[in-house]
Amino acid sequence: MTKNDFLKPKIAASILAADFGHMADQARQAQDAGAEWLHLDVMDGHFVPNISFGPDMVAALRKAVTIPLDVHLMISHPDRYARAFVEAGADNLTVHLEAPHNVDKTISLIRGMGCKCGLAINPATLADKALPYLREIDLMLVMTVNPGFGGQNFMVDCLEKVRVFREAINRDVIPCELEVDGGVNLDTIGPSARAGANVFVCGTSIFRQNIRESVTALRQKLA
Ligand code: DX5
Ligand code: ZN
């Protein structure tokens, strides 16, 4: 990663919306279409009311693509599972501020393994709660839907938090990515970028139509 790589706009294709019968193929298509990252949503049926997949899927997709794997843990006690996901090939491992765990310790644990660490906040969580961690993390993830399911509507009010984080990151020159996740599509990617996000998680808006055309169209909105 070059010095200012964390400022570059990136599309993170969220595999949750892909055809689970053809994961590797769909991931490769997203990579070939120009998605910079692959986003993998891990759900435990406890922290969120849905179950997706675990470290074995991360390992399988690690073999399928070369782009970074952006792993989003929507699970309780993420510290207990962090090592398994790093060993499976996660490049970024994002944990929720609201999950039961010691956030400081989990961040140290993940970074201590040489993995980038992200911190995610739900729509109901105030930016103030996460601001103290900005210098300790590599990625701030602002949920723009309630976590658990793809295909939900973007909550525009969450962009106010994106503005707050962007201002803090720029003011203090913090090397932290700023990611929006949930309901990002052709209508909402532009406003997200203008609010200050530089990583855009897109599931439904990529995998539920022609993958190449949708990545190209989303990219054009960032121009
Ligand atoms: C939601 C997940 C998202 C989801 C986004 O809990 O964290 O990453 O895959 O899906 P779309 O883009 O369909 O809203
Ligand atoms: Zn996600």
Structural class computed from helices and strand pairing: alpha/beta
Strand coverage percent: 15-25%
Hetero compounds: D-xylitol-5-phosphate, zinc ion
What is the global morphology? globular
The residue fraction in helices comes out at 25-40%
**Integer average pLDDT:** 97
- Main beta sheet: strand number and arrangement? 8 strands, parallel, barrel
Tell me the number of helical segments per DSSP (H or I, 4 or more residues long).
9
**Structure summary, number of beta strands:** 8
State the separation between the terminal residues, measured CA to CA.
22 Å
Oligomer category: single chain
Q: What is the strand arrangement across the widest sheet?
A: 1-2-3-4-5-6-7-8
Stretches with pLDDT under 50, minimum 5 residues? none
Q: Could you state the order of secondary-structure elements as H and E?
A: EHEHEHEHEHEHEHEHH
Which value, in Å, is the CA radius of gyration? 16 Å
Could you characterize the architecture of this molecule?
With 223 residues, this protein is α/β, with parallel strands linked by helices. Helix content is 37%, strand content 19%. The protein has helices at residues 23-33, 55-64, 78-88, 103-112, 127-130, 159-171, 189-195, 204-207, 211-222, and strands at 10-14, 37-43, 69-74, 92-96, 116-121, 139-143, 177-181, 199-202. It has an 8-stranded parallel beta barrel with strand order 1-2-3-4-5-6-7-8, surrounded by 7 helices. Strand 6 (139-143), helix 6 and strand 7 form a beta-alpha-beta unit. Helix 2 (55-64) runs parallel beside helix 3 (78-88). The longest helix is centred in the last third of the chain and has 13 residues, at 159-171. The chain is globular. The two termini are 22 Å apart. The model has no long low-confidence stretch (mean pLDDT 97). The structure holds D-xylitol-5-phosphate (DX5) and zinc ion (ZN). D-xylitol-5-phosphate binds next to strand 2, strand 8 and helix 8.
